[in-house]
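Following up on my earlier thread - several people asked me to post the actual chain instead of describing it. Fair enough. Here it is, all 302 residues.
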Amino acid sequence: MRHNPGTQIGEPERMMSTTRQDYGERIGRVASRIAARPDEANDLDSLAALAHFSPWHFHRVYRAVMGETVADTVRRVRLHRAAGALVQGTTPIAEIARQAGYGSAEAFTRAFAASHGITPAAYRTRGVLHPRVPAASHEGEAAMYDVQLKTLSPSAVVALPHIGAYMEIGQEFERLFAWAAALNPSGSWPRSIGIYYDDPSAVPPERCRSDACLLLPAGAVPEGEARRLTIAGGRHACIVHKGPYAELENAYRWLYHLWLPHSGEEPGDQPVVEEYLNNPRELPPAEWLTEIRLPLKSETPA
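Reply from S.P.:
Thanks for posting it. Predicted structure:
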């Protein structure tokens, strides 16, 4: 609900705002737990208890806030994790299917193909973490992405910290999305950003540091670990990756190994940032758009 600057919020409006925020935080705890532990039973009674809602009403509240059922969230998280396992390791597909909660490789194949538009075996064979041989540019440089040099303004965000594998940062985003959706149920999908502080090839996954962030109005701060911070502006090299988040390492490899050494640029003293440009709940993974922003040093005056 919007109010003009200087307009005093009446008690009913304040109470409604407080209630919506409370609902978002409670449902956010549930969504975060599902994302962190999708293999657990996640029965509705225990989830309702975690959110402090009556089991008779919990599922309706969850769906109203999240825009999907508990089963939808579990399925989405498990398939996201499975995509990462397919491209990042050699675990047999049958075992990945079991870990994703499917009774057979055939059932897993059908679900994965329906979500990602390609079978698990074909997805792995495609070798998404081994970049496809791109066409060469006239400079002899591999040309796979369109790099745009942008000067960006600082961005104020609400952030939740995450320690652990970057593929698991979704649990923090789920908490933020639930809180934002409850606070503004008729609003558009909030702009979401990930800040990644460590190189996962050099730092053990369980120690990697990141922040899940939403761009929200000033003063909007959920309780708990969330905090407001400012993402630095300045010069950035930006590329847009289209496809599942599990394939983002492919884009990073191209950006750092192929583009950067030939660019004449140097990385700046800020962490890399990703902005997720569309809603992953409304589109198949093949349509997901992620802008990767590599900070650059300021240009040296001539």
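The radius of gyration is 21 Å. That should answer part of your original question.
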